[in-house]
Amino acid sequence: MSELELPEAPQKGDLVVGVVKRIERYGAYMDLVEYPGWEAFVHISEISLKWVRNIRDYLREGQREVFKVLRVNPDAKQADVSLRRVEQKERTWKIIAWKRRQKVLRILHILAERTGRSEAEVTEMVAGPARERGLELYDVFVDVVESGRLPEWMRLDPDVAEKLVQLVQQEIKLRKVAINATLVLTSKAGNGVEVIRRAVEEGLKAVGKGEHVSITTMGPPRYLLRVEAEEQARARELLEQVAKRCIEAIEREGGRGELLR
Predict the structure, then answer these.
(1) What is the CATH classification number for the domain harbouring 69?
(2) What is the pLDDT of residues 221-248, one digit of tens each?
(3) What residues make up the domain containing 130?
(4) Per-residue H/E/C for 8-47
């Protein structure tokens, strides 16, 4: 299933984006933005691991937040959800995925308007080939921003292709949040340089589309680890993931690693 396709109803365990519309004494009601017509309720006991005296210390009307689905009632289009059961990394990834989907949908909507075609036709023309290749359309669009052209397999009429490239470059701005840290990697093996190189390569496997990581020497055994991502939380998470992979890889070969903040 591509990032444009959602099931008709949320399922137990799903992460959903809700906008709080009403706060009561024992919980809060929200609209599920990905599921039109669906309402969710979070009980006060599912808001925080700590004792909650005032729900408004955690939620407010109009706030957009990520929740985990506990129960669903498809007939009433209602769900019970939890805030306290959502891990920080889950929230980060869900918000990023939701923002990316909104951006892709906006691009396809405007493209339909500018070409005089239906949204369904434009979506199939653009998203269909990506789906066949198992690619996320947002990732394809990031490549378009960086290269200035569509992939060869996306065979569109020249006028449509030109408008799509223009739209993608206008709508997708690869803003970056950068974080630096020091990574210490040591190896006493005879091929220590090669061991460190392989550890670095392993760490870089954690990098996603539109993200950037560099590991440069500050003078062995200290290396500057610099990560760039769309969100502050994702940048911190990516830094830890890259460092963890590097350290685990070098320790497997008898070396040592450490992340210094």
Answers:
(1) 2.40.50.140
(2) 999 999 998 788 888 889 999 999 999 9
(3) 89-171
(4) CCCCCCCEEEEEEEEEECCEEEEEECCCCCCEEEEEHHHC
